[in-house]
Amino acid sequence: MKGKPSPPIRRNKLKITLSGSPGSGKTTVARLLSKKLHIHLVSVGKMFRKIAEEKGLSLADFGKLAETDVEFDRMVDERQKEEAKKLRGAVIDGRLSWYFIEDADLRVWLKTPLKIRAERIAGREKIPVQEAERQIVAREACELKRYRDYYKIDLNDLSVYDLVIDTSRWKPDEIVQIITASLKGLK
User: Of 46, 76, 97, 126, which residue is least crowded by CB atoms under 10 Å?
Assistant: First the structure.
């Protein structure tokens, strides 16, 4: 006989930030988690693409401008904060979401070895694995510098997260189970 179900977590107010390196599975896990918890999904990557479109820029051109002009990053960051404030419950998928969503109930970092991330991105983007790895390394170096200069954030400091999960060890639905199990301890 199954035990009594756990009382529902205050899902209508729950905010979870999901961060990680490119190819770590953020988007996949965020989508599955928001669906499981029946809460909104805020995708910073989607916002980045939307702002680029609004500005009439390709994603690559918008990314290059963000490397040289702090206002492009700040535009995305502010939109992320505004969107999350409007929602009572959400999974916020973004590299710096933990920093901008001050009322987050749980901050999660998804980590994955570079080789696996490159394979994932190569498959998704239909490019050679070596090219995906080169792009990841270049992007991470740029972001490491930008976020340190703009916000005084060290992306290598994982102590700011409540939960760090190696996505090379589990399937996306298992990662969602790990995250939801960790929510049981929240008040």
Answer: 126
Pairing mode of beta strands 90-93, 163-166: unpaired
Give the tens place of pLDDT for each residue, 153-163.
999 999 999 99
- Chosen CATH of 15-112+158-183 out of 3.40.30.10, 3.40.50.880, 1.20.210.10, 3.40.50.300: 3.40.50.300
CA 174-175-180 angle, to 5 degrees, is 95
Nearest to residue 35, comparing CAs of 7, 16, 21? Answer: 16
Q: What is the pLDDT of residues 31-47, one digit of tens each?
A: 999 999 999 999 988 88
pTM, entire model: 0.84
Q: Which residue has the tokens 């998928």?
A: 93
